[in-house]
Design goal:
Blueprint: H1 9-13, H2 18-43, H3 52-77, H4 86-99, H5 103-106, H6 109-119, H7 121-130, H8 138-165, H9 171-178, H10 185-189, H11 208-213, H12 216-228, H13 234-237, H14 239-261, H15 268-275
Helix pairs in contact: 2-6, 2-7, 2-8, 3-8, 6-8, 7-8, 12-14
Bound molecules: zinc ion (2 copies).
């Protein structure tokens, strides 16, 4: 594998500005109050019972896991710190995390979670719009509860990621990591290991297996490169390393496709009988 060009961690860390901090504080306040509003509206709507409630929680968690994977992949793979809007707000933190994994464990609550709280405003607002207490049906309530769960898990994804990098997370978190109900350090370690193209989901990590099995990100990268000429991860690892990884991924995709198109070999016994 070609040598990875390491970015300067100090320079990236210095990009955390007062404007960014204000954006994070605003995101936390706005999303928290919208989530409370959604919960109040849901409490005044018809009551959902039985297994629908845990199912709504599970759907919200899976939505957050998928969103974390797609956002993390996009910010890791494309653009740079000078990309308009998301460069300073998101890409800088992802670049920084790759050269200093432990920095996240030194960040306070606002710096760790502000950006994800801001993103979680979307599911919370859609939930408020869906659940109108006077006219809400049970399916509106189910959607509202799923979106409330999605809001909580999207908002806390960076905190969960931080716990996966901590030497000593809180005991209950450690137990949930062991039980596979939160992203574990062992599962997340695959993201920080060569070829640095795996395990982007960082809420529970359950969707990393299916996304890899179907080569979703590998296929998307190939498509985007074909359309734009951009090299995935060029800004993160340097051009030579990024090209080598992209070549290896393309070869693996081709091999996979060829294997899928290959008709299955007839069983050994029928081969023997054909020869007779
Ligand atoms: Zn990453
Ligand atoms: Zn990490």
């Amino acid at each position: 594998m070609a040598k990875i060009e390491q970015r300067d961690a100090k320079e990236l860390e210095a990009g955390y500005s007062r404007v960014h901090r204000a954006y994070e504080l605003g995101g936390i306040l706005l999303t928290s109050s919208t989530l409370v509003w959604l919960c109040v509206r849901t409490a005044h709507a018809p009551t959902l019972s039985g297994w629908w409630v845990p199912l709504a929680m599970l759907l919200g968690m899976l939505f957050a896991d998928l969103t974390s994977g797609v956002a993390h992949w996009a910010f890791d793979t494309w653009g740079n710190v000078d990309t308009p809007v998301v460069g300073r707000l998101a890409i800088r933190t992802f670049r920084h995390h790759h050269v200093d994994q432990k920095a996240i464990t030194r960040h306070d609550f606002v710096e760790t979670n502000g950006h994800n709280f801001a993103l979680a405003l979307l599911p919370a607002s859609i939930g408020v719009w869906c659940v109108r207490p006077a006219t809400a049906t049970l399916s509106d309530v189910f959607v509202g509860m799923s979106l409330a769960s999605a809001t909580v898990f999207v908002a806390l994804t960076s905190q969960i990621h931080k716990w996966a990098h901590m030497e000593r997370p809180p005991r209950v978190v450690h137990w949930l990591q062991r039980a596979g109900l939160l992203l574990s350090p062992e599962h997340h370690a695959a993201h920080h290991a060569p070829p640095y193209t795996r395990s982007y989901c960082i809420t529970v990590g359950w969707l990393n297996g299916p996304l890899r099995a179907f080569r979703v990100f590998e296929g998307l990268e190939r498509l985007i490169t074909a359309c734009t000429g951009a090299i995935p991860r060029e800004d993160d690892t340097g051009k030579a390393a990024a090209e080598a990884v992209a070549r290896a991924a393309a070869e693996e995709l081709e091999a996979n496709r060829a294997a899928m198109l290959q008709p299955p070999a007839p069983p050994a016994s029928s081969q023997a009988s054909e020869r007779q």
